[in-house]
Amino acid sequence: MSPLKRSYTIIGTGAVGGFYGSCLQRAGFEVHFLVHNDYEHVRQHGLVIESKEGDFTLPNVYAYRDVQEIPTTDVIVIALKATQNHLLAHLLPPLVKDDSVILVLQNGLGVEEEIAQMVGNKNIIGGLCFLCSNKIGPGHIRHIDYKAITLAKYAEGYQACGTAEQMVHLSDDFQEANIPIILFEDLWIARWKKLVWNIPYNGLSVVLNATTQELMANINSRNLVEQLMKEVLFGAQTPNRSIPKIFIQEMLDHTEKMEPYRTSMKIDYDEHRPMEVEAILGNPLRSARDRGIELPQVSMLYQELKFLNARNTQDRRK
Amino acid sequence: MSPLKRSYTIIGTGAVGGFYGSCLQRAGFEVHFLVHNDYEHVRQHGLVIESKEGDFTLPNVYAYRDVQEIPTTDVIVIALKATQNHLLAHLLPPLVKDDSVILVLQNGLGVEEEIAQMVGNKNIIGGLCFLCSNKIGPGHIRHIDYKAITLAKYAEGYQACGTAEQMVHLSDDFQEANIPIILFEDLWIARWKKLVWNIPYNGLSVVLNATTQELMANINSRNLVEQLMKEVLFGAQTPNRSIPKIFIQEMLDHTEKMEPYRTSMKIDYDEHRPMEVEAILGNPLRSARDRGIELPQVSMLYQELKFLNARNTQDRRK
Predict the structure, then answer these.
(1) CB 3.0-4.6 Å disulfide test: which of A73, A181, A206, B121 passes with A171?
(2) Is the dihedral of CA B223, B228, B233, B238 positive or negative?
(3) Count of CB atoms within 10 A of residue B246's CB?
(4) Please, which residues have CB within 8 angstroms of residue A16's CB and are 6 or more apart in sequence?
(5) Number of folded domains in chain A?
(6) Is the overall model pTM greater than 0.90, yes or no?
(7) Which bin fits B215, alpha (ψ -120 to 50), beta or left (φ > 0)?
(8) Contact, A75 vs A84, CB < 8 A?
(9) DSSP secondary-structure letter at A317?
């Protein structure tokens, strides 16, 4: 490891954090992993990545159970499920210094704002992962497809703030680790664009117990996907920013060509894990409502998912 | 049987038609039953009604497979599932005379209009059954609870047309058969009032795989039920008619006090039978749209149900 290279802390060593952290370590970066359930296993055996681009193993990784033991690093990567974000108020303060860069690799809306209020840090970068991977065992991650990340800097109130220097640094590091990076000047639009896909497909895949392919093959569900996308576009609008309508058609066409896909929310549901309903639907709905915009069909999807989530995680405790 | 009494033809000898027809026959009315799958069984063994008010058997009933063989009767009762209404164009013309009374015992909206266009008859009465019964075997019906019927006469365009003489006659007959009858002056409002209950509870019970009790116990599904009811009220509005808002609270309170209830649509879904999606949601939506009223959440529920209905009845054919 080179002392000239930036160092990383990965909070959440699952399908996302475990994968990207391992890629960085393999490329020679110093990486510290906060590990929860798999701690003992990862200390002894390290991390294993299966990938169609080539499997690899990191027999020795810096693994921690307690943030207090993690040394100061240049970058802190938040790769928890958004359902675990209540832990951040406890996890972040010991790690974050004034010049730390915080990279948020999560779906949904609103988490950068919460973090900014929590630690008062000015270097928060949102990252949108186009990644298909699963954790299939302790310290064992299967990378299935894609891995690009779109980066955009957070500024108060999600104002567009251009390409920050920290984004370029992160981009250099990730590209050195063979991760394609797209730099984007407007985190608000980047997040809402991802929501245009995530809200209908994640939500309906759970409510209708369907793959993306099934949703596209039936005229009623396909129309419903499109209507939901229109509402999300409407919710994204601010006085000076909007997503062009053509984006909907691009997403529909793109999804139609994809392999049948079980969404991340559907995987969580099937595994009886809490779903990211608040990050992906609740926060965007509240954000729109605060600006006087009602999204009735997204709101209905939210309520359906809240009902299913409550019953599904309750069953587990039986 | 008394020659002074009105005679009845029952089209559809299931949980609804089999039950009411049997009650009428037991009370001394001449009743002719059109029977489909159970024809041979009913000819040989008649009809069996199980009821907490007392079981009874009618060993001999007039059963028919072909409408051409049914003699002319005073009243023709349509008790098919609304999903079978495409059969009416074939079934009704041989049975209906100018002075026939047609009683439609179905859920949903629009069937009286279709029948009026089909046979040009002026004596069409809509009947809304508050009945909990199931067909549990060939010619074997279990009456669980309730049995009242609300009657209202159809006039072109669902104009309110007061209490017609034929309604009073039907009321006399059914009450003689121990069926409580409510006479209502406005079929439009009667049908939409029933939709205020049927749309949210039937629809959500299928989409969320839930009983009425589960829907009422969770704050999100309960709020969603209420929102859907508000949309139905909005859809019912005409320049001179509307359902008072207090009706929503009455329905919510009433349902909260009910025993956990599996709706008729849920039973159809569980049995892989086609659901009455068009009668209960599609026709009201189109009626509202024709009057320039959009119901986004009812529309979403409709599309979800159409998707589930297609997959559910397709599975059956596998």
Answers:
(1) A181
(2) positive
(3) 8
(4) A79, A105, A129, A131, A133
(5) 2
(6) yes
(7) alpha
(8) no
(9) H
Residues A178 and A196 placed together within one structural domain of the fold: no
Residues B299 and B180 in one domain: no
Q: What is d(CA A186, CA A146) in angstroms, rounded to the nearest whole number?
A: 22
pLDDT tens-digit map of A176-219: 999 999 999 999 999 999 999 999 999 999 999 999 999 999 99
Phi, psi of B308 (to 5 degrees): -65, -40
Nearest C-alpha in B relative to A215? B307
DSSP letter for A274, please.
P
Tokens read off for B15: 């949980």
The yes-or-no verdict on residue A318 having pLDDT over 80 is: no
Residues B110, B200, single domain; the answer is: no
Do A172 and A204 sit in the same domain of this protein?
no
Q: Which residue of A has its CA nearest to B308?
A: A208
**Rounded CA separation B11/B23 (Å):** 15
Which of B139, B169, B185 is a domain's end point? Answer: B185
**Any CB–CB contact under 8 A between A49 and chain B?**
no
Q: Which residues of B touch A214 (CB under 8 A)?
A: 311
SS3 content of chain B, % helix, strand, coil (to 5): 50, 20, 30
Which of B81, B153, B193, B194 is an active site residue?
B194
Which residue is listed with tokens 């199931």? B134
**One domain for residues A47 and A145:** yes
Give the CATH number, domain containing residue A228: 1.10.1040.10
The answer to whether residues B207 and B145 belong to one domain is: no
Same domain, B181 and B201: no
Classify residue A2: in a domain, yes or no. no
| Chain B 296-315, residues with CB within 8 Å of chain A CB atoms | 296-297, 299-304, 306-308, 310-311
The residue segments making up the domain with residue A313 are: 189-317
Q: Chain B window 182-221: which residues touch A at a Cβ cutoff of 8 Å? A: 204, 207-208, 210, 214-215, 218, 220-221
pLDDT at res. B121: 79
First CA to last CA distance, chain B: 48
pLDDT of amino acid A314: 85
Alpha-carbon span A291 to B304, nearest angstrom: 29
Query: Given an 8 Å threshold on Cβ–Cβ distance, is B304 in contact with A221?
Result: yes
Contact B106, B78 (CB under 8 A): yes
